[in-house]
Amino acid sequence: MENAVKERSIDVLLREGASFPPPPAFAKTARVPSKAARAKLTAAAAKSPEKFWDAAARELFWFKPWRKTLQWKVPHAKWFVGGTTNLSYNCLDRHLDGPRRNKAALIWEGEPGEVRTYTYLQLHREVSLFANGLKSLGVAKGDRVAIYMPLVPEAVIAMLACARVGAVHGVVFGGFSAEALRDRINDSQAKIVVTSDGGWRKGAILRLKDAVDEAVKGSPSVKAVVVLKHAGNEITINEGMDHWWHRLTAKSSPVCPAEKLDSEHPLFILYTSGSTGKPKGILHTTGGYMTQVAWTTKNVFDLREEDVYWCTADVGWVTGHSYLSYGPLLNGATAFMYEGAPLTPGPDRFWSMIARHKISIFYTAPTAIRTFMRLGDSHPGKHDLTSLRLLGTVGEPINPEAWKWYRRTIGGERCPIVDTWWQTETGAIMISPLPGATAAKPGSATLPLPGVDADVVDMQGKSVPLGSGGYLVVKRPWPSMLRTIWGDDERYKAQYWSQIPGMYFTGDGARKDKDGYIWILGRIDDVLNVSGHRLSTMEIESALVGHAYVAESAVVGRPDEIHGQAVCAFVTLKGGRTPSPELKDELREFVAKAIGAIARPAEIRFTDSLPKTRSGKIMRRLLREIAAGGAVKGDVTTLEDFGILAKLQQDEE
Ligand code: WT7
């Protein structure tokens, strides 16, 4: 672990270079307009984080004020204790009395090209209708609702409807398999599944309802399935179980007062990969989440009334929760959303949408930026991108080359870039530039935001000196922090609060440079980051050994130019089974079916044995080195013999 951090620190040292101060024209009108202004905010928040967050919470609507800002008993936090509020009320009702009433809340473009706009008033109505629909199916406060949908406005409407009635939503990414969906439904004991017939992806229809049918067979908790008619593909309707969305809402009342919910009422469960095979249900609650998401959206993106803000994330990920749905709506902004694939029907789809909808804030992932960079400047060059005034990135470290390309080719050298570090667990952005205040250094997420006590420490929890590497931690509770792992508080304690005593451990290695800027070095546990999405090596391994021919497997990441990391699986076969290119393809598909296409190994390598230590631990470091070693030599089905290597390295651990 220590070595990995050290090696990567050296990489960072080599590329640390240029610094880009906020463009003066931008800083002039920015919410936080100078380095000094940020320092002042940070100092005040450090002195009294509770006072800082208290003021942020007061910008929102509460039915009843809180008695106490924070109740902290390591590792359990309660924020805004005793207060009651409702997230859907804050996203919708709060905007209906003023000039935002008829303002566009959501502008959506489908992959085939359809455009739909919802004003705040219209969105409020749709959410109320659907919330009443959920109630008519027996959904009550605290019930779990699984949402398995394409990126359509109804996905956001379903989330807001759950928040309105106090049901706990669990969005499952539409690219996940039926099996992955079933596991998540069962773990959360969801009562209802909301889905659609299908969704558009690369010109084809993703058959979501079929996957739900398969999942629900093994999910006894599910009492009803709501189906949105969207892609128009034929589906099977199961009488007594399935309900068309349009029929359900046609008979609903549009009046649905928002439930007065306790600040700590559960808002959502979102599953993410950890270092074991079983995904973790990250639990977020209402008041604190809402407060930090609202503050960060407003200040990190310097969000304005007249902005058209586009976050490209899917609602299946936390970014799609905090910065596609809730953050912009909490701020009464206009959010754009796009259903489909980035390169459909052509490589300029994104740029065409930015030009047509006059997008002013654009937030995406480094993997997408690298893809576009590789496709060349001619595609963005065809479109007028001058509406853009701010760019953002999230999900993984961005390499300086891609950062500079983004700034020049997309941002026209005039847009600041915010590189935002956070996690599913943190709920909201934690480390980031403030665009009018912080000089950016390509590849660094820069500084902890005001009210966030993040630091780089050694194993004992001691802050490392400037210029050194260590572990990224958060030393004090923050409002949008996860509250637990659903159904497994012990795992919550062990995973996040036991590695470095008394502090939240992020799982990331990091380095502080001479200016105190934080450089994320990546995960130090067995978690891969493929295209900004977390995958657990163990989850993929357990999928592989589920195949009848597979005896053992070890999954590691190898560096990948576009995706950050790619999945590389070493596999040993059961006696009598022979490796073949066909079996490779079969195993790749097998993983895709078990988890989802995102986990499909880029590479399968058959081997006679896996290198192990005397105690039987797989020597992953060795495998990582081999995987990173470039092209596979000779016949792709060659067996690798790790016997000798393992012997040579036996005494290393
Ligand atoms: C992990 C969290 C937060 C939404 C997307 C991913 C990596 C995230 C950055 C960044 C370097 C980053 C970290 C983190 N990561 N943002 N700006 N720079 N690394 O959410 O799936 O919960 O993954 O993504 O390793 O721990 P997630």
Give the cofactors and ligands.
Answer: 5'-O-[(S)-butoxy(hydroxy)phosphoryl]adenosine
Q: How would you classify the helix and strand content by structural class? A: alpha/beta
Question: How many β-strands, per DSSP?
Answer: 30
CATH topology of the largest domain: Rossmann fold
Described by strand count, sense and barrel closure, the largest sheet is: 7 strands, mixed
Q: Uncertain runs with pLDDT below 50, 5 residues or more?
A: 631-636, 648-653
Q: CATH H-level name of the largest domain... which superfamily?
A: ANL, N-terminal domain
Explain this structure.
By secondary structure, the chain is of the alpha/beta class. The protein folds into two domains: 446 residues, Rossmann fold; 126 residues, ANL, C-terminal domain (GMP Synthetase, Chain A, domain 3). Helix content is 33%, strand content 23%. It contains 21 helices and 30 strands. The strands form nine sheets. The protein has a seven-stranded mixed sheet, with helices on both faces. A five-stranded parallel sheet has the order 7-6-8-11-12, with helices on both faces. It has a four-stranded antiparallel sheet with strand order 21-22-24-25. Strand 29, helix 19 and strand 30 form a beta-alpha-beta unit. Helix 8 packs across helix 9 and helix 11 crosses helix 12. The structure holds 5'-O-[(S)-butoxy(hydroxy)phosphoryl]adenosine (WT7). 5'-O-[(S)-butoxy(hydroxy)phosphoryl]adenosine binds next to helix 12, strand 20, strand 24, strand 25 and strand 27.
